[in-house]
Amino acid sequence: MGERPFQTHDTETTSHAITTSSSRTVLFVEHETDISGRFDREHDDVTVRVESSAADCLIRLGAEAIDCVVSNYDLPDGDGLDLLESVRDEHPNLPFVMFTGAGDERIASEAVVEGVSDYLPRDAIDGLDDLRGRIETAIDRHLTGRGESRIRALMTAFPDVAFLLDDEGRYRELLVGPNTESLAAAAPPDLVGRQLHDVFPEETAEQFLTHIHRTLETGNVQTMEYPLDVAKGTRWFEARTTPLGTRIDGRDVVVWVARDVTERRERERTLARQHDELEMLNQIHRLIQEVIHELVRAATRDDIEQLACKRMVESGLYELAWTDESEVSRDGIAPRIRAGGIDGYLDTLVALEADIGDDPATMAMQNDELQVIRDVRETDLLPQTVREEAVSRGIESGISIPLSYGNTMYGSLSLVSTRTGVLSERAQAALEILGDTIGFAINAAKNKKLLLSDTSVELEFQVSDTRGVFLSVSRRLNCTCHLHGLVPASEGQLLHYVRVEGAPPQHVEKMVSDSEHVTECRLIDTDEKGFVLETVMTESTVKRLVEAGAAVQSATADGGKVFLVAEVPHDADVRRVVDTFQAAYPESKLIGKRTVDRSIQTAQEFRQTLTDRLTDRQETALRAAYFAGYYDWPRGSTAEEIAGSLDIASPTLHYHLRKAQYELLAAFFDE
Fold first, then answer.
1. DSSP conformation class of 25
2. Residue percentage of the chain with pLDDT more than 70
3. E-strand stretches of 134-260
4. Is 433 exposed, middle or buried (0-12, 13-18, 19+ CB in 10 A)?
5. pLDDT tens digits for 20-34?
6. HEC states along 126-145?
7. Cβ count within 10 A of residue 527
8. Is the pLDDT of residue 183 over 50?
9. How large is the average pLDDT for residues 296-310?
10. Are strands 233-243 and 222-230 parallel, antiparallel or unpaired?
11. 337, 313 in Cβ contact below 8 A?
């Protein structure tokens, strides 16, 4: 292998300019790597020698002049530190560069103590030109006698801010690279010779000094994290300190490597927030499941709302809960049921009355949508006076949940919390389900009360409002329109089945379809007396009565007027039902109000009523089909098999079954 001139450093400049005044030889000591081979192929102006063990390296150094040793840390007969120590015993000024597979503070610190010229992890080498530059710099330092900072080796391994600090907290040496200067607490030239108390506040300086003493006392690597205001703003650092192992001017010294961990802490904080949100969401779900389970045992609306408010407050997630009544006009907040309290906050809201404007509870009921306040300081759902009252009590968030079922709005449930994070999007979805469940429970309680009571209040209204679709039809076409049936549909809609008599189907269908309040219209059935229309209406007298909490028994449009009959439980707030309906239809009149006795049938009497509607052949066909498994899935018998058993034709069986089924359904659905 031919020798070529090796470039050396001009002692009078700081650049890495090259001369050709002498030849240099570099000895690579490596095991299971081939850095030397690649280096030799790319830099033919350097004489490369290679040995694979520490023992062979020492033999080579005794037999030949070497300008620099480049050694692996991992060697078959020891490690790079052992080799460095042996080399320094015999060749104290020989440049020595060591590299490993990964950076390590302990190895770096020990290498500095033993006098390593440079130290770097293999993966930190940016090409072989970079390694050559490190070798040149190491040779140049020893040739010129101008020693660089002892922690240069550390900084090549760890691209962070590094210091030597003595046991009095005085900066002895520091090294801030070109990419880390903005991370130092002060300009690097201003730190050497100063003490921690000259740079930092008293509390911070004492914290750092305590950490230095703990490092020296234990003799081990110590870590800590701390924030600092630097040129790049407030950053978080992780300090890793280890004893230097030698004294400077009679003082014990530590190596302090400060790594910027701001991004890592942000990731950790994000994960922590996500974990906390998940835990809170699980808690909310468990709470809602418990409330829903307990709602089954609540007998009245008051019981239902009291249970919901009480359990939400007991959970600790919300400090205040109350329900509001759905009313046509609201003059401020008027809670029905309440639980918990935050320094009289709810009483303050009640006292504000009309000054509060359209509060979140009112908007929740009007729009049938959640009204969410995640931060009371930023929300536009509350006026300034209310926000100030909330902030003064430490309130952070709140939500108003509509309580509805089908087309009936019963009220709202409002929750207030002094915590953040209890109203995430997933939490809102869970609370929306709770609102739907409470609305369903209130509706079930009302229906149960109506079904079990032997008396009810019957209300009769007369309406002449021109918005009525079938009212207009009856007046213009001189016909009669009867509500044949009412079925809840999706998205809170109602299917109106209306029987019309005395008018051509095509004319009626066109008039109804052209109405602005009708979204769908379909002709269902016709006979010699009339026909049935299926309609979906955004506005109708029947829909308004249902929303007011009444059960519509009949509705008839005749001669330009609509007559409606509805029932409410005997202990219901009749005045509220009437006011709610008349607010929507001011021209309506309550023309009748009476208590109605409801006959109570036993199960046997109910079955007998159904049987009386069937002929003998219809009942026989229905019984045979039922017991033969005709209505099972999969079917136990076919229609042909059942017809054969009864010794009748299959079409005859279908005829009797169809008639029997119609009679049973009519008994169930008809008045």
1. E
2. 83
3. 161-166, 171-175, 222-230, 233-243, 253-260
4. middle
5. 335 689 999 998 888
6. CCHHHHHHHHHHHHHHHHHC
7. 9
8. no
9. 82
10. antiparallel
11. no
Residue 30 and residue 161 in contact, taking contact as beta carbons nearer than 8 Å: no
271 is written with which tokens? 């994960």
239: nearest Cα among 217, 210, 272, 199: 210
CATH hierarchy code of domain 25-150:
3.40.50.2300
The 10 Å CB-count burial string (b at 16+, else e) for 5-37 is: ebbbbeeeeeeeeeeeeeebbbbbbbeeeebbe
Show the 3-state SS of 272-326.
HHHHHHHHHHHHHHHHHHHHHHHHCCCCCHHHHHHHHHHHHHHCCCCCEEEEEEC
Report residue 371: phi and psi, to 5°.
-115, 110
Q: Are 565 and 459 in contact (CB under 8 A)?
A: yes
* DSSP reduced 3-state for 501: strand
Q: Which residues pair with 76 in a beta bridge?
A: none
Question: Which residue, chain included where needed, has tokens 């607010």?
Answer: 583
How many angstroms separate the CA atoms of 266 and 201, rounded?
A: 25
* For residue 583, pLDDT beyond 50: yes
Q: Which residues are bridge partners to 481 per DSSP?
A: 500, 557
Question: Is pLDDT at 490 greater than 90 in this prediction?
Answer: no
d(CA 282, CA 427): 9
In three-state secondary structure terms, 186 is coil
- Closest by CA to 305, choosing from 287, 324, 290, is 324
Is it the case that residue 149 has pLDDT exceeding 90? no
| Residue 296: predicted pLDDT | 67
Any alpha helices (H) in 14-150, and if so which ranges?
A: 35-42, 54-63, 80-90, 105-113, 128-144
Superfamily of domain 277-451: GAF domain (3.30.450.40)
How far from each other are the two terminal CA atoms of the chain, in whole angstroms?
112
CATH of domain 603-669: 1.10.10
In terms of CATH, what superfamily is 159-260? PAS domain (3.30.450.20)
C-beta of residue 64 within 8 angstroms of C-beta of residue 94: no
Measured CA angle at 292 (ends 289, 295), to 5 deg = 150
Residue 517's closest CA among 491, 541, 551? 541
Q: What whole-number distance in Å separates Cα of residue 175 and Cα of residue 155?
A: 7
Residue with tokens 């049987």: 611
User: What pairing do the DSSP bridges indicate for beta strands 96-100 and 118-121?
Assistant: parallel
Domain chopping of the chain, boundaries: 25-150, 159-260, 277-451, 455-597, 603-669
Q: Residue 400 and residue 318: Cα distance in Å, rounded?
A: 12
CA distance 402 to 324: 9
Q: How many alpha carbons fall within 13 Å on the CB side of residue 573?
A: 12
- Among residues 54, 67, 59, 58, the alpha carbon closest in space to that of 25 is found at 67
Produce one character per residue of 565-586: b if its CB has 16 or more CB atoms within 10 Å, e if not: bbbbbbebebebbbebbbebbe
CA–CA dist 468, 470 (Å, integer): 6
Give the tens place of pLDDT for each residue, 31-58.
888 888 888 888 888 899 999 999 999 9
Q: Is the peptide bond before 383 cis (omega within 30 degrees of 0)?
A: no
DSSP 123: G
Residue 101 three-state SS: coil
Query: Could you give the CA distance from residue 401 to residue 413 in angstroms, rounded to a whole number?
Result: 5
In order of 497, 553, 598, 639, the CA distances from 661 in angstroms are 20, 23, 26, 15
- Please tell me if the domain spanning 159-260 has the same topology as the one spanning 277-451: yes
pLDDT band for 481, please (50, 70, 90 cuts).
Answer: very high
